[in-house]
Amino acid sequence: MHGRVVFPIHNAQGELVAYAGRWPGEPPEGEGKYKLPPGFHKVLDVYNLHRATACAPEHGLVLVEGYFDVLRLWQYGICHAVALMGSTLSEVQEAQLVEAVGSQGRITLLFDGDPSGRACTQDALERLSRRVFVKAILLPDGMQPDHLHEEDIRAFCS
Asked: Which domains does the chain have, with CATH numbers?
């Protein structure tokens, strides 16, 4: 994890299950941007769900791709932000999200404005909207939630 920003990852019950390292900026040659411990499967957990669950019944959830996105939203008082830790929604994550908001709940999708973010938005919208209310925010090309201004974040996440 040397040289990386390290994020503790908890499961939905609040138990620490892993640490993830993210290289700030472009990683050195031969290094990946992310580093996860061997045996950890990110598709089994939703980042920050253990904290956001308290706000979920009232505010729903804001679903983003990454750790920095959650931090940015949290910085502006969006306590109900969670991340997939990537741009793929697994069946396990889907079930956890629906359970957190309840059958009458809502989820706002706020993925990156790139091809993988758009594909994830489409997939998550189709799957989650069968079970809960879903609002999808489509960001302009190249835009990421952690680069948004405070007023945009508040408008999207209200």
From this structure: 42-157 (3.40.1360.10)
